[in-house]
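In the design runs reported in the main text, the only information available to the sequence generator was the tokenized backbone. The following block is the verbatim input for one such run; it is reproduced so that readers can re-run the procedure and compare outputs position by position.
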């Protein structure tokens, strides 16, 4: 069983199937999943992207100053974390919001010691504002925060059930890995996380599990050590496919 985990959610995960910026029903379902795992004794930090509201790279591509665009993206993550905090509290799970950029009226500033203290007190800790710096993705923020809070594993939630050797939506013969190394991800140029986040995890020996968020109970199963999705490990071993 994992003692402490960092859960990385995309902003799009909050949209549901209807294409809303934040779907209340989808938000409540995710919050219930997180709360269920927390009640089983797993300490959970959460990083949520902001792509459902604003994506910095998209703004920059449209001609915006990159720093301004990325700052808007970081503020979007604060909005998503506020929504998740409210959903968690409404289902009876205490939750704290900490931000890497100052938003004093709605969040505490992030510090390592304060975050760990809140986790040990049984609160889900929502970590907003990315790294607080432009040019870094929320994937990199998730890897950084996972290391800072001493997480046992980084859980990356996706819409598919793990890492494949090619896009399973476009290739019927795509095969899913049960285990793969960070080195293999970089060699194969698999679009799991950005290369900065992958390298940060690899260099610091942080394991990661990529799993399907839409399957009910997966977070709780991962928290108790069940084999779900694809496990990413530090050592440079031969990748193993599902079913082999």
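Verbatim output:
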């Amino acid at each position: 069983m994992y003692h402490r985990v960092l859960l990385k959610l995309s902003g799009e995960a909050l949209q549901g199937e209807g294409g809303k910026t934040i779907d209340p029903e989808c938000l409540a379902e995710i919050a219930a999943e997180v709360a269920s795992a927390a009640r089983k004794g797993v300490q959970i930090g959460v990083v949520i992207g902001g792509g459902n509201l604003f994506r910095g790279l998209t703004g920059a591509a449209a001609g915006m100053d990159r720093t301004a665009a990325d700052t808007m993206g970081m503020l979007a993550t604060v909005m998503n974390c506020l929504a998740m905090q409210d959903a968690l509290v409404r289902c009876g799970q205490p939750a704290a919001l900490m931000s890497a950029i100052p938003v004093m009226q709605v969040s505490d500033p992030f510090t390592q010691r304060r975050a760990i203290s809140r986790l040990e007190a049984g609160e889900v800790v929502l970590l907003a504002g990315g790294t607080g710096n432009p040019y870094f993705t929320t994937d990199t923020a998730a890897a950084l925060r996972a290391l800072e809070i001493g997480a046992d594993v980084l859980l990356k939630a996706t819409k598919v059930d793990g890492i494949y050797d090619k896009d399973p939506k476009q290739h019927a013969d795509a095969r899913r890995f049960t285990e793969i190394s960070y080195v293999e991800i970089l060699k194969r140029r698999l679009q799991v996380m950005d290369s900065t986040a992958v390298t940060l995890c690899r260099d610091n020996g942080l394991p990661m599990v990529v799993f399907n968020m839409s399957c009910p109970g997966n977070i709780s199963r991962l928290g108790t050590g069940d084999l779900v999705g694809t496990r990413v490990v530090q050592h440079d071993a031969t990748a193993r496919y599902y079913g082999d």
